[in-house]
Amino acid sequence: MNKIDNNLIDAIHDNIDSIEVVLRINMMCNQKCIFCFVDINSTNFFSFEDVKNQIIELKKIYNWKKIEFVITWGEPTINPDFIKIIEYLYNNWDYIRVQTNAVYFWNKSNFNKIIKYLDKIDFFISFHSSNEKIYNYITQTSWQFDLAVLGIKNLLKYNKVEINIVLNSLNINFLWNYFKFLWENFKNIWEFVLNISIMTNIYKYKQADKMLVNYTKIAEKINNSEDIIKKYNINIADSFWAPCDMPFCIWKKLFYFKDKVYTKSRIIWDRTKIENCKFCKYDNFCNGILKLYIEKFWSNEFIAIRD
């Protein structure tokens, strides 16, 4: 029987002709985002040999399928074997996605180590505010804002990146400034895509009550930014699921919503559905509503979409 380490292999998404493997190569992080559910106090990481051996096991199970890798959790770039792991994946497979805060890539020495692999790598970059004070508070750092901006610029010289903002009570009122900052600092270098996320797994957040924002307010803030988004031609990610699992009845209010075929819903421990949900045309695709959200914000905003 093949042995899969669920600490290293965080998830396997089995598609028709390929699988997406989410690698959790370490739990360490150089930031301490106050809404993050990852235990960044851990010093554990997986070595290159650990990763290689697990991938060999995966190949025994999924030998005939194309394997795509997503490297996430903690800050992957601070794993001592990060470049060695990237090199191995690059030489054996066609697609790698790295979730990072980009601080590592400000340094030319670090950046030069990964340049030759960039044609197969997509980067999903967490950048939660264009205001340095808010960024520092969210990430619990005091010096990384400029380094993150420089890291993003370095990556954009060679590749398109996806920039992710997790909307919360600290940054929700500064979206106009955020969009303008992205355009002024990044758009003239290379193309980027913006992914707009909401807080999830909030039972693990120490400040969940203070950070959580009403979904309808989020939709209003985003829609009120439509002019500036279009003015700066900012490309918002067109996911096959609602952004970080925002309920479809809220997501459909957003100006960039597209009605198409979406992935099936998943059972998630911190979500639930209400009576209205079973009448919604998206019920089979929606993951439901955060339980804590219902406790804090319960209202009549969740209305089934029938047509």
Outline the structure in words.
The chain has 307 residues and is of the alpha/beta class. The chain has eleven helices and ten strands. The strands form two sheets. Strands 1-2-3-4-5-6-7-8 form an eight-stranded mixed β-sheet, with helices on one face. Strands 9-10 form a two-stranded antiparallel ribbon. Helix 1 links the parallel strand 2 (18-24) and strand 3.
What would you say about this model in short?
The chain is of the alpha/beta class. The chain has helices at 48-61, 82-92, 108-114, 132-139, 145-156, 175-187, 208-211, 215-224, 226-231, 248-251, 291-297, and strands spanning 9-14, 18-24, 66-72, 96-100, 121-126, 161-167, 192-198, 235-236, 271-272, 289-290. 31% of the residues lie in helices and 17% in strands.
Number of domains: 1
Task: Output the radius of gyration.
Answer: 20 Å
Alpha carbon gap, first and last residue:
48 Å
What's the helical proportion of residues? 25-40%
Structural class: alpha/beta
The geometry reads as globular
CATH superfamily name?
Answer: Aldolase class I
Number of helices: 11
The share of residues in extended strands comes to 15-25%
Which fold name corresponds to the CATH topology? Answer: TIM Barrel
What is the makeup of the main sheet? Answer: 8 strands, mixed
Task: Label the CATH architecture.
Answer: Alpha-Beta Barrel
Name the CATH class. Answer: Alpha Beta
Strand tally = 10
